[in-house]
């Protein structure tokens, strides 16, 4: 012992160490200790509000008492009451509840992981305990693990759960116990006990409705009664279930509860149009009431969107019209922006603009602009970044994300990990697009500063000489000219539709089946850009550029294509115009003239590497060669 250590500290440490060793000791069953363990279990359950409380009380009861039971046995008794009765999902074909966890790894130790010594303890306790909670728990474990033959354990468990009704347990635990008792009685055919369980369930629902409380218990019990009475061996469903369902729909104001109850009614009243319509209307009106009570314009719009969506789903056009009208006239949302700084080294911009500063003609500079990489960046790298963000963000996994479109109208609710990942991927891509939009616009502006605005005819002639389709080249030339004269909106509206037209032309050249033939009175049409990108990918189109088109043009991201087509693109920046021109130029410049019959492999090669080197005159090539020789001589 150290000189500075207080007297007795070493002995205390040894005692604590021995206690810990006892806690970790393997339980060795001793039937002689069962009466004392049973007494302890009954005492722990007396007045408890739940099985977990009984589990905690076991240790408190033995603390400070000189007991011969041993800590290993106490630990097993604590674990016995640490299991839970978990109701099955609403609408389950086998209504009831389960004793969990049944298999591990888990905390507490899973039921099936108990060794034969612990199982022997449970068998002996089941015939020794007297409190209803202890009887229900021990008998239920014995039956669940099939530790004894016959159905006596199931009968004892059901009787124990019935005896718990009206006792000290919280109502939701009593309700879960009745669900478990119902499932057990149905599983083993306890015809004498099943009516008692059903009566107890109805009485519990009646009491909860009278108090307008415990909606979870009401929903779970009514759902079990409805699903059970839909079985073939039930001759006449109990009319009290219908009455209680109708009362429950009007007893609660919580939308989640009303939605669950309405789904129960729909399962119960198949074919009864009046009752179905009433339940559906109550559910939609609950969403409308939530919108009335909302203090935030954003939350109100979300509730109105839910109401309209649910009304459409349930076939209630009148309520859908009301919800949509209110949604359109709802108060404006006060959006708050979260600003973050992203530092891009100046060298990044300098390196990007170097070809435009060094170019000897506007044709050379424009050729460099047509050979820039995808503004959204590398697809594989962006996916890795998106996965890292989602893996590190708890908020991104737990929060519900609602996307809003034009005029503050809800556009989409993200659900599931896949949609969350796609949303994060587009967000990462848009960061790259915004940065490259600045650089692409700077490059076009630098061409104008150095060489002036090239004549429209010369731009068109230069593009056509590259072998692209003349009509497409004419549009691209006009769009570039509009950009240089400051007509950004006109440049976007002219260039964006040609992206889809050029994609369609390339697929027709590959003879890909795209056309949607007329059916009945319908009209045959070509699909939109979103549907054209998949066959392009199948023909080796660069995935980096495909992702740029989706993130910039389609509704997965900026949705520039649809906003421009429907007149919602009010203010167009030079960056947006430059990006639209780059998207247009990418596909336009790898199209071909009508008479040209290119090999399929040649078209696929152009899609895989959609770059272009503009042709130069003999004089331009001579000047470039002289300048290159001069630079070599100076070095």
What does this structure look like?
The longest helix has 36 residues, at 416-451. A two-stranded antiparallel sheet has the order 1-2. A two-stranded antiparallel ribbon has the order 3-4. It has helices at 9-23, 34-45, 51-62, 71-80, 116-126, 132-144, 152-163, 171-188, 194-211, 215-229, 239-251, 255-268, 273-293, 297-314, 317-328, 346-358, 362-369, 379-392, 394-398, 416-451, 456-464, 470-484, 488-509, 529-538, 543-553, 560-565, 574-588, 600-608, 618-634; strands at residues 84-87, 97-100, 402-404, 410-413. The protein is 64% helix and 2% strand. Helix 3 packs antiparallel against helix 4 and helix 17 (362-369) packs antiparallel against helix 20. Mean pLDDT is 85; it is low at 1-23, 615-624 and 630-635. The protein is mainly α. The protein folds into 2 domains: 18-212, no CATH class; 346-516 and 524-610, no CATH class. The chain is built from 29 helices and 4 strands.
Key attributes of the depicted protein:
mainly alpha; disordered N terminus; DUF7380; 2 domains; DUF7380 domain-containing protein; 635 residues; two-stranded antiparallel ribbon; 29 helices; two-stranded antiparallel sheet; 4 strands; disordered C terminus
């Amino acid at each position: 012992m150290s000189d500075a250590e207080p007297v007795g500290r070493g002995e205390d440490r040894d005692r604590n160490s021995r206690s810990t060793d006892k806690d970790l000791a393997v339980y060795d069953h001793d039937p002689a200790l069962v009466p004392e363990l049973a007494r302890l279990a009954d005492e722990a359950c007396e007045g408890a509000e739940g099985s977990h409380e009984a589990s905690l009380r076991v240790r408190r009861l033995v603390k400070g008492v000189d007991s011969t039971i041993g800590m290993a046995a106490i630990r097993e008794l604590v674990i016995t009451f640490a299991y839970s009765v978990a109701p099955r999902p609403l609408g389950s074909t086998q209504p009831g509840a389960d004793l969990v966890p049944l298999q591990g790894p888990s905390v507490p130790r899973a039921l099936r992981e108990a060794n034969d010594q612990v199982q022997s303890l449970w068998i002996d306790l089941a015939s020794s305990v007297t409190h209803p909670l202890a009887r229900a728990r021990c008998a239920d474990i014995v039956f669940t693990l099939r530790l004894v033959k016959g159905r006596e354990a199931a009968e004892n468990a059901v009787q124990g759960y019935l005896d718990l009704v009206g006792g000290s347990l919280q109502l939701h635990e009593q309700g879960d116990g009745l669900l478990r008792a119902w499932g057990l009685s149905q599983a083993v055919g306890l015809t004498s006990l099943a009516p008692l369980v059903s009566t107890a369930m109805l009485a519990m629902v009646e009491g909860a409705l009278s108090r307008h409380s415990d909606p979870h218990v009401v929903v779970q019990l009514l759902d079990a009664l409805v699903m059970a009475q839909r079985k073939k061996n039930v001759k006449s469903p109990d009319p009290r279930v219908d009455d209680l369902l109708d009362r429950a729909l009007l007893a609660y104001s919580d939308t989640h509860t009303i939605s669950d109850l309405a789904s129960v009614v729909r399962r119960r009243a198949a074919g009864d149009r009046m009752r179905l319509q009433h339940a559906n209307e109550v559910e939609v009106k609950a969403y409308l009431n939530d919108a009335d009570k909302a203090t935030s314009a954003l939350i109100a719009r979300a509730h109105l969107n839910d109401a309209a969506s649910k009304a459409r789903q349930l076939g209630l056009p009148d309520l859908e019209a009301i919800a949509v009208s209110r949604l359109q006239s709802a108060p404006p949302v006060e959006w708050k922006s979260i600003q973050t700084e992203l530092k891009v080294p100046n060298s990044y911009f300098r390196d990007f603009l170097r070809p435009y500063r060094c170019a000897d003609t506007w044709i050379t500079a424009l050729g460099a602009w047509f050979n820039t990489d995808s503004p959204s960046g590398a697809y594989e790298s962006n996916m890795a970044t998106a996965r890292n963000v989602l893996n590190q963000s708890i908020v991104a996994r737990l929060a519900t994300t609602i996307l809003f479109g034009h005029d503050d109208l809800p556009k989409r609710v993200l659900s599931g990990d896949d949609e969350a990942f796609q949303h994060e991927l587009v967000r990462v891509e848009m960061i790259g697009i915004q940065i490259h939009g600045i650089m692409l616009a700077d490059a076009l502006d630098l061409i104008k500063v150095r060489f002036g605005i090239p004549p429209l005819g010369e731009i068109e002639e230069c593009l056509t000489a590259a072998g692209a389709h003349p009509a497409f080249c004419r549009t691209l030339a006009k769009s570039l000219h509009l950009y240089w004269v400051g007509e950004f909106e006109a440049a976007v509206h002219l260039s964006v539709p040609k992206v889809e037209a050029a994609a369609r032309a390339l697929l027709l050249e590959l003879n890909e089946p795209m056309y949607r033939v007329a059916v009945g009175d319908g009209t045959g049409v070509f699909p939109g850009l979103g549907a054209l990108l998949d066959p392009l990918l199948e023909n080796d189109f660069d995935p980096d550029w495909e992702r740029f088109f989706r993130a910039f043009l389609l509704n997965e991201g900026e949705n520039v294509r649809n906003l421009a087509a429907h007149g919602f693109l009010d203010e167009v920046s030079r960056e947006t115009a430059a990006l639209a021109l780059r998207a247009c130029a990418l596909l336009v410049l790898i199209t071909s003239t009508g008479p040209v019959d290119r090999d399929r492999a040649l078209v696929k090669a152009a899609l895989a590497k959609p770059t272009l080197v503009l042709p130069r005159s003999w004089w331009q090539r001579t000047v470039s060669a002289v300048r290159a020789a001069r630079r070599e001589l100076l070095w």
